Amino acid sequence: MDDRMKPYVEKMEKTLGSLESDFKTIRAGRANPAVLNKIRVDYYGSQVPISQVGNVTVPDARILQIAPWETSQIKGIIKAINMSDIGINPTTDGKVIRLVFPVLTEERRKELTKEVKKKGEEAKVAIRNIRRDADKAYKKLKDEISEDEVADLQDELQKQTDKKTKEIDKMVEEKSKEILTV
Q1: Entry pTM
Q2: Is 27's pLDDT higher than 70?
Q3: Domains in the chain, start-ordered, CATH in brackets?
Q4: What letter does residue 88 receive in the DSSP assignment?
Q5: Where are the beta strands (DSSP E) in the chain?
Q6: 3-state helix, strand, coil in the chain (%, to 5)
């Protein structure tokens, strides 16, 4: 791969990584600790992820359990979960916090697949924007390199764009399938 193309391909890879982490936060009816990744808890004045204030486990297919290292943090963790958009009410027995994931209704599954497709489309737009930026940069190189070299760079860039777009389609299809599986 040409060195002039590497930064753009790396940006495309980061876009795919970001989409993958977004997909992990979408719950599919099964308990997945990744839904807590974006939730921050106030821990002695600083905002930290839940995984840094307690142990997160999955004792059952539909239950997440958070065992805070300090029981004084329970109220703060519950508050942070309630303020988030995961839509699950935490329960506690004073020592651990449990999040019971309800079985998703068919309507909710369809909404989630629409959200997955929307995020996929946003990632494709980001990939195309990266291609456009690279294309502009290559056109500026016409003074330094031949038109054939510029055309080769643009062809290779288009191949990379197509490849990444297909990967996004595959990711969207897999996540949608996961959500629609009862």
Answers
A1: 0.70
A2: no
A3: 6-24+105-180 (1.10.132.20), 33-100 (3.30.1360.40)
A4: -
A5: 40-43, 46-49, 54-60, 63-68, 91-92, 97-100
A6: 60, 15, 25
